[in-house]
Structure formats: structure tokens, C-alpha cells
Amino acid sequence: MPLDAALAARILDAVDANFDRQMDMTRVLVRFASVRGEEGPCQDFVHAELAKRGLAMERFPMDEGAISRHPGGSPFSPEHSKAPIVVGIHRPREETGRSLIMQSHVDVVPAGPRSMWSRDPFEPVIEGDWFYGRGGADMKAGHAAMFAVLDSLRAIGLQPAATVTVQSVVEEESTGNGALQCHLRGYKADAVLIPEPEEEKLIRANAGVLWFRVEVSGLPVHVSHAGSGQNAIEAAFGVIGKLRELEARWNEKKADHPLFAEDPHPINLNIGKIEGGDWASSVPAWCSFDCRIAIYPGERPETMIRAVEETISAASRADRFLSNNPPRVVWNGFTTEGYILEPGSEAEAVLGRAHKAATGKPLETMITPAYLDTRVYALYDKVPALCYGPISENIHGFDERFSVASMKRVTRAMALFVAEWCGTEPA
Amino acid sequence: MPLDAALAARILDAVDANFDRQMDMTRVLVRFASVRGEEGPCQDFVHAELAKRGLAMERFPMDEGAISRHPGGSPFSPEHSKAPIVVGIHRPREETGRSLIMQSHVDVVPAGPRSMWSRDPFEPVIEGDWFYGRGGADMKAGHAAMFAVLDSLRAIGLQPAATVTVQSVVEEESTGNGALQCHLRGYKADAVLIPEPEEEKLIRANAGVLWFRVEVSGLPVHVSHAGSGQNAIEAAFGVIGKLRELEARWNEKKADHPLFAEDPHPINLNIGKIEGGDWASSVPAWCSFDCRIAIYPGERPETMIRAVEETISAASRADRFLSNNPPRVVWNGFTTEGYILEPGSEAEAVLGRAHKAATGKPLETMITPAYLDTRVYALYDKVPALCYGPISENIHGFDERFSVASMKRVTRAMALFVAEWCGTEPA
């Protein structure tokens, strides 16, 4: 049932009135340089803030055994975060509405060289409409918005009339195991909302993601002559060339995936990191590189893993260095499936109304070629999993930023969504 | 005047009798992990050992200003060693013979991953005829041999009848500035002997060497789509491809350099090290790689530097990422000229007789495509600069090793050479 217009107006006013406080909290969150493995202090702050609001708090580690037995689990590597997951549960006086999970991640990708930023990546600043900082858009702005929704309702004497589970996870940027751990622990709701930076659009479908490292190491055939065929760095280039051919073949299959058929290049392979050798005058006998590639929704990670491994084997047989020294492939992160948000759910309709009321425009949908934690709830809980958030630029790049005005619109929409989906009751 | 046969026999016996002690000193030297910048303790040991033998000791730093003004100087980088150079001078009672500089370097190249060695690289062991250890062959075996020559003569009551300057340098593996600093300080002799591991042969000519780092960094054009044209790591591969073409063109010129015309591939480009990016799921906006390339004797480094820079400029114009973000070329090591040892010198004749007497075989010559410190004395002092040393395998690689029997033969030849070149007098 659509929200009463007067109530909607009061809620929107409350969001606007709270907005400076929301940006203050976003600033605090961005100042935590919560890169992989370093999320502990940020999670402690989140825990304290949720507890302050009277939510029932839970905090727990990942269960590697349980994750590894689940088809949606990604492999653990030595870099896997050990930071806790933090969950705050709002339980209403009377459970009259529909329950909701709101989730954000606090892990951020590395900032890269300071010199490539026009400002300190962990000292947020707003210039014009842009809020700059590593992890601001992806996704501490959304994280602060979850607090803002609850605070704005509270400011007008209301709270959700259904259980709302607020989940603050880690490992979203590397494995998706944080969200999966929440699922394994048993949290469940009638819908899920994750406010990732998605251009004020709702994600209709997203790709699965595979992460792997290729480790080339072995003895050059003749160390005295540094011909290119004996150099582990250049042997690695040859493997990368073959992986690019695999990427091209996967992109050619887009017609089989109607939601992705319009995307000029839905499957992106990224060679994100490389390290090899240690001395200009020594023939390098080792080189490793880290890759990320997307897979279409419906494709099983294990099938696509085999295709990657076969590509690397074939590349090795054709190379002088590699045929003597077959590379090792390490699956060191994401091995996750994509998902499709089935159209027609009541949750989507409610978000559509909320968006229209908050922004004056109809809610559009889009697909993304990137990993999203919503996959856990779409695939394994089979509930409407809504990924929707603000306009941003340069996530994972330099001068990452989100639009402040967009974040305000999105927060307004989120608040109306929660009020209608969960209903409200006196706080 | 050839050595008296009886004296030669006494000297050879003395070398043999001293040989266990010589290997002990080699072991001690190899245990110092004297990689670039870490040579201090090893140089202190060398200083103490030379002083113990009564040589007049000198110890001094590099003079960056003087080196940079000299045509044979290589650029300083932040990694340049600050370890001292150690020189011990033997002055005879009567200066009746020809003076000699004997020189070795104590810097060694990095060992690389421990897992690729079949033993600890800095815990030397002898197995069969092979002495294993990083820097054993290149060139602590030769370093210990300089001591062994003086000790063996002393053991039979003799010493050189001319000034012998024993120079222990650093930066041989990266700039050649250590040897140049000795030249700049004014040490000079009628001949120079450097016992690098050269297959029991005399070096007739060697190549010059250039070191450079190419730094690619800039903003990918569209960070949202990780197409290969926007990736700094893959942009770097393109530059490397063009440098390989330059290498091929330089190899085609070998007919113009008769001493190198028989070598199947005299000019080696090595891509020795690469680093780029920091996250599998972020498009890498930076990548740097370290290179080494040879130049023919007679070619001027500044001319060849321009050719490298023009190659990189041309590669950049053809690449989508690089044309927006031209790479930076940093000359961070060797910019050295090659040399030719002119045949017919008396020093070469004396070494030839010594080698024949010590090994039973005529002295052969060879060319090397690698840097040698002898270039300083050949080019700037214009004296016979003899590079001659033991049989080895895998220098700059894993399980670096030298032949113990070969080292004994070479030490015998060195002792006879010193005795004939310098003459002898009672100790």
C-alpha cells in the first residue's frame, strides 16, 4: 500500500534535516583506511554507532569450513580479512510489516600511489557537488545512508514495523564471503537492499566474478643469453595474450544472455597487478600477475575456472619457457556466480514508488559487469535483492567521488522504501 | 723474461698448499649477503684482512660530482651503494718490476626466491667440484684469489717487486662507479688484472651496458571498462615489444663489429624486473619495468640512450594509453662503454705463459656481452686490462657455482703472472 502523502513528506523533510549529520558520518567512515585486512577499527566504530541506536548487536568471524562447503563460497588466501562482521538487529514492537536486510561493506580497494590523487584519499573533502575519498562512493556513502534512514524516522517519532537487520560486512571487494557468512549464520528477510553506487538505478543483473593469480616460475633455459623466450616476465605476457583471446570469445557469447547483449563489452578481463624479477641484469625466473574476469549470470564458476585453466595450459604448451615450467594458477578470491533480479516483485515496485517520490523520475534499471553482494540473497535466499545507490565517478580509480545531491535523493528514496516496505510504528 | 722454472714450481706448490685456506676465505666472503647497499660489513672484513698482511690501507666513499663529470660515470639513483671502497697498497723494498692493479668487487646480485635454490644462497657448500653460493663465482672466488696470490708468495719468503694495488670495489653490478672512483682517485699501474669468472679465458672485448627504468603511469581513459588499451601493465608490454625490435636492429649491426660478428646474439636486452598495479579488480594505472641492454665497443652511451628514448617515444605515440600518458625513462644505472683489449701487449703475453704453465693449455680469448670493470682501465688509463677467471655456471641465476679445480688452476696462473710481471723480492 503506497505511503500516505503527508507521512512521505514528513519523512523526506526528516532526511533533509538529518543530511549534514549523514555527511559527517560519511566523513568519519572514509577516514578509516579500511583496506583488506584493516577493517577492524571501522567495524568497531560501526558496532558502537549501531549499539547507540538500541539495535541488538551481533559480531562474529568468518567460518572458513562452512564457506568452503557452500557453492557460493570463494577460496581463502593468506590475504583474506580476519575482521569481524557486525550486525545490528532492529526488532519492532509488533511485527506488522515486511522484514528487510540492509547491508553495506566497509572494505575499500587500495588507494594506489598518493601522487596520482589530487588530494589525500583518506581525508574526505566536498568540492561543489562531489565528495572525494577512497571508499566514499564504494560504499561508505551507502553505509552512512542506512544509519540516516533509521535516524530520520526516529527524528519524527517512528521506527520500522518489521525486523530490519543492518549488516556491515567485509571481503566484498575480494571474495564476497562476508555476505555469504551472514547468509550462513541464518539472517533472512523478505527483501534485501544494498546501497552500492549505481547511478540512482536498480541493478537488474550482474556478472559473476573470478579472481586468480598466475605464478610463472622456473629456470631459464640458458641464463647466459637473455633471449625473450627464456624470460618469465615476457612468458607471462604470452599467457595474458591468450587470456585476452578467451575474454573475446566470452564476449562473443553475449547474444546468449539477452540482458547483456546490448553491452558493448560485458565480460571484462582485468590484469590488475604484476610482479616479477629483482634485478635489471638478471634474467627473471619468476613473475606473477593477478587477474579478474567476469562470467555471465547462470554460468557456473567451476565450469569457467576449467576454461581459464585450459587456456593457460594451452598457452604454456606454445611457449619455450612455460613448456618447461608450467605456471601455477591460484584461485585467490572471487569464484562467484552472477544473478538476475526477476522483474515484477513487490519489493521492486515499492522501491520504484519511493524513487519516483524522492526524485520525481521513474526508476530505471541497469546491468553491471561487476561483483555485487546482492547475489547471495538472490541466489541462495531467493528473495528480491535490490542494489541501488548514488551517482559516482572513478570507483577503484583516483579521486573516487560521489554526488552529494544524488546521495541525498537516494537516501530520501531509501527512507520512503523502508517506511512502505516495513511499515512504521511509534518509536 | 719468463720465470725461472724452479721458482715457478715453488710458487705453484705454494698455491696448492694454501688452497684450503683460500677456499675458507671464499666461504667467509660468500656468507656476507653483500647485495647492493649492504656491502659495508664485507668491505670491513676485506679491510681487516688486507691490513693484517701489512698493506697500506685506504678507504673512501664515491664522489658523485666527480663521477657525474666523467664520461665513464653512470647516474646515481636512490639505490646507489654508499658502502666504502677499500684499497690496500703493497709497496716493495725496491721498485724493480712492473706495477699492477688487482681488483675485485664484493657486491652481488639479489638471490631471488629462496625456494628456487636447492640450498641457502648465502651458506656456501662444496659438492663434488662445484662451490655453490650467491656471489661465489661472481666474484668472491676471484677476490679470495687475490689474497691467495700474495699469501702463497709470502709463504715461500717472497713478495712482488713492484707496487701492487689491491682494490675491493662495489657497484660493479649496477653502475661501474666503484672502479671509476678508483681511477678518479689516481691509482694507476702498468697493467690491471680482474679475476671475474670467465671460463679460464682472457676477455678480448666486452660490451657496454645501459640500464634504465620505464615508468608508465597515468589515468585509464574509461575506468569503468577495463579494455586492454587502458591498462598500464599491458601498455608496458607494448613498449617492451618495441624495445625487442630495437634489440633486433642492434644485433643486425654485428657485422660492423668483427669481434662480435660470430656471436649469434651479441646484444641482449633483458627485462629484469616489473611491478604494476595493486588490486585484481582495479585497472592498473601504473607499471614500471627495469631494463638492461648491451652496446658494442666504440659506441657512445649518449648516442644509444637517444636511440632507446626515441624507441619509447615512438611506441607511446602508437598506444592509446601511452599517447595520453607518455612514459618516463629513468637512467638508473650503467651508462658504460665497451672496450677491446688490443692484442700484442706484454701483459697478455705474460698471462699467456702463466696460464700455459699453470694449466698445460694455451690461453684462449673470448668476448662477453656483459659489463666488466676492466673497461675503466682500458678506456681511461689505456693500459692492458686483463679480465680472466674460473669456470662457473648460473651467475645471476639460481645455484650459482664455480669449479673448485678451475679456481685452483686460475690461482696458479695468477700467481705466476704476478711473479713474472712484478718480479719478486724477499718478503
TrEMBL record, chains A, B:
Its cofactor is Zn(2+); Co(2+). SUPFAM superfamilies: Bacterial exopeptidase dimerisation domain, Zn-dependent exopeptidases. InterPro entries: ArgE/DapE, Bact_exopeptidase_dim_dom, Peptidase_M20, Peptidase_M20_dimer, Peptidase_M20A, YodQ-like. GO terms for molecular function: hydrolase activity; metal ion binding. Transmembrane segments: none annotated. Keywords: Cobalt, Hydrolase, Metal-binding, Zinc. Signal peptide: none annotated. The keyword Cell wall biogenesis/degradation does not apply. The keyword Lipid metabolism does not apply. Residues 205-317 form the Peptidase M20 dimerisation domain. Belongs to the peptidase M20A family. This is ArgE/DapE family deacylase. It comes from Phreatobacter aquaticus.
